[in-house]
Amino acid sequence: MGNFSEIINKNKIVLVDFSAEWCGPCKTLAPMLKEVKNKVGNNANIIKIDIDKNPGLANFYQIQSVPTLLLFKNGKLKWRESGVKPVHELVEIINQNI
Question: Where is this site: Deprotonates C-terminal active site Cys (predicted)?
Fold first, then answer.
């Protein structure tokens, strides 16, 4: 969890995608997140956390369903939502928190 903590505590927006390999909606979201990254560029980092490989992190953030997206800035949770969100909505949420 140390490395994760370092990543989210930077003065940069970090969108965290809690997902699982067996999750259909997670597979749908993956290319959408690439598109989001292309639109926001260096204004945000987007990282993926597999809940099966990181159960401690999933428990810490009380991830009940996947995909669940969390948005951090300076280590503070700014936004959280479960499910697949449209690209334009995610870009807007990131831009509002820059």
Answer: 17
Q: By residue range, what is the domain housing residue 89? A: 2-97
- Measured between alpha carbons, how far is 24 from 70 in angstroms, rounded to an integer? 19
Number of domains in the chain: 1
Helices and strands, counts by H and E, the chain: 4, 4
Q: What is the pLDDT of residues 46-73, one digit of tens each?
A: 999 999 999 999 999 999 999 999 999 9
Amino acid making up residue 86 = P
Instruction: Specify the amino acid at residue 35.
Output: E
What residues are labeled active site?
Answer: 23, 26
